[in-house]
Write a structure and sequence with these properties.
Length: 226
């Protein structure tokens, strides 16, 4: 399925990226699972230099090894020695952005609460000391809304007040769903569209599944689900 809507969010991310060429900027994107956060972020940087880190539930040392491979492949820099702490890698990347501006995406950021909760205060310290002299476009994404809200909006948390922009991504509205439905199916049956609206709930991943499978009638939708 082609990329639909999210014009306001893309415009905001574009503006933040441009401001990051002067000094580092931090953006937080939240929203339920399968709402399209990752696709939105990747769409916003598709023509730029970026790193994408997915925080899986594994040892911090193993995560760093995966991230370092991404850094070397995307930025073309060599990292000598062993980095086993995320704070050390983050500091290296911030310093790298002084001469080579880029976007760093950290997906499912809230998982650090399970892996190493001290990461939040460590990043806060590094960010505060370096954000004005570096050029990093930093984007945090997370699908556990309560945790992301706590990390970035609770006054007692280290990263409180650090994010310049926050996006809470919502479901597609009726107009966008109607556009997707009619452009992909040529079906104008109101009952079928109502079923499409109800069964997808406007959630991007479910809309994509129905669209890819050409399920645009009630019977086809129900058969696909069942």
């Amino acid at each position: 399925m082609i990329f639909y809507n999210r014009k306001n969010e893309l415009q905001l991310l574009k503006e933040v990226k441009e401001f990051s060429f002067l000094s580092s900027k931090m953006t937080v994107i939240t929203g339920r699972r399968r709402i399209g956060k990752t696709k939105l972020i990747l769409k916003s940087v598709e023509d730029d230099t970026f790193l994408y880190f997915f925080v899986a539930r594994k040892d911090e040392k193993l995560l760093c090894a995966e991230f370092i491979e991404e850094v070397q492949n995307k930025l073309g820099i060599k990292i000598f020695g062993t980095i086993e702490k995320f704070k050390d890698l983050f500091e290296l990347l911030m310093n790298t952005s002084i001469k080579k501006p880029f976007t760093l995406i950290i997906d499912e950021f809230q998982e650090f609460n399970r892996i190493n909760p001290s990461v939040f205060s460590e990043l806060q310290n590094i960010w505060d000391q370096n954000k004005d002299k570096t050029k990093l476009n930093l984007i945090f994404s997370g699908s556990v809304y309560s945790m992301m809200k706590k990390i970035f909006e609770h006054s007692k948390e280290p990263l409180f007040g650090r994010a310049g922009e926050k996006i809470n991504l919502k479901q597609f509205n009726v107009d966008v769903l109607k556009q997707i439905f009619t452009e992909n199916s040529k079906n104008t049956n109101f009952k079928d569209f109502l079923a499409f609206y109800i069964l997808t709930g406007g959630v991007a991943k479910y809309v994509e599944i129905f669209t890819d499978k050409k399920a645009f009638t009630l019977d086809k939708m129900l058969n696909l689900i069942l």
